[in-house]
Amino acid sequence: MLWDVLGLLGIAVFIVCVMGLAAGVTWVVVRLTPNKKAESDPPAA
Fold first, then answer.
1. Residue 41: its pLDDT value, please?
2. How does pLDDT run across 1-45, given as a tens digit for each residue?
3. What is the spatial distance between Cα 35 and Cα 23, in angstroms, rounded to a whole number?
4. How many degrees, rounded to 5, is the angle at CA 28 between CA 24 and CA 31?
5. How far is 12 from 41, CA to CA, in rounded Å?
6. Residue 1 to residues 4, 6, 7, 12, 14, Cα–Cα distance (Å)
7. Exposure b/e, 4-13, CB count within 10 A at least 16 = b
8. From CA 5, how far away is CA 19, in angstroms rounded?
9. How does DSSP assign 1-45, residue by residue?
10. What is the pLDDT of residue 35?
11. What is the pLDDT at residue 38?
């Protein structure tokens, strides 16, 4: 019984870690990838 609860808790922690890693990688890629449209197009004023 206790091992079942710990197993489910472990799976939940694993899912949260994978989602956090995916969010972190996405944030890094968005930060490091240059925005070519903003560089080539001057802002309309």
1. 60
2. 999 999 999 999 999 999 999 999 999 999 999 877 655 566 666
3. 19
4. 140
5. 45
6. 5, 9, 10, 17, 20
7. eeeeeeeeee
8. 21
9. -HHHHHHHHHHHHHHHHHHHHHHHHHHHHHHHS--HHHHHSPPP-
10. 75
11. 55
